[in-house]
Amino acid sequence: VQLVESGGGLVQPGGSLRLSCAASGFTFSTYYMSWVRQAPGQGLEWVSTIQPGGSGTAYANSVKGRFTISRDNAENTLYLQMNSLKTEDTAMYYCAARASYSIPALQAPRGQGTQVTVSS
Question: How far apart are CA 5 and CA 38, in angstroms?
């Protein structure tokens, strides 16, 4: 499993960012894909998950209505559109891949991460 995140950066509160995760080394279209994040000095936090076919999604309450997860199985790419960003969204964002939903997202293999900083 190889995952490479990109798209992070510095944005003002209320702004938007779109994260991408390029996947390789496994059959992307059959895996549950998630975004997890880790704020400075804190543990990993689950953000969102999308089913292999893309029809089902789930979000943490803290991001529901602001973030949208999506995937392009033809391009082996996962996305996270983040709108109305808040300072508390500042974190390293990782994509994670799991073959089975029974595997906790926080324990799934993930990439090196992309930093998102929300600050004025």
Answer: 14
Q: Does the pLDDT of residue 101 top 90, yes or no?
A: no
Cβ proximity of 8 and 20 under 8 Å: no
Beta-strand pair 91-98/114-118: antiparallel
In 3D space, the residue among 37, 18, 33, 34 whose CA is nearest the CA of residue 93 turns out to be: 37
**Distance between CA atoms of residues 118 and 85, nearest Å:** 7
Give the span between the Cα atoms of 103 and 114, in whole angstroms.
Answer: 23
Q: Write b or e for each residue in 83-99: b if 16 or more Cβ atoms lie within 10 A of its Cβ, otherwise e.
A: eebeeebbbbbbbbbbe
63-97 tens-digit pLDDT: 999 999 999 999 999 999 999 999 999 999 999 99
CB under 8 Å to 96, separation ≥6 — which residues? 3, 33, 34, 35, 36, 105, 106, 108, 109, 110
pLDDT digits (tens, 9 = 90+) for 4-29: 999 999 999 999 999 999 999 999 99
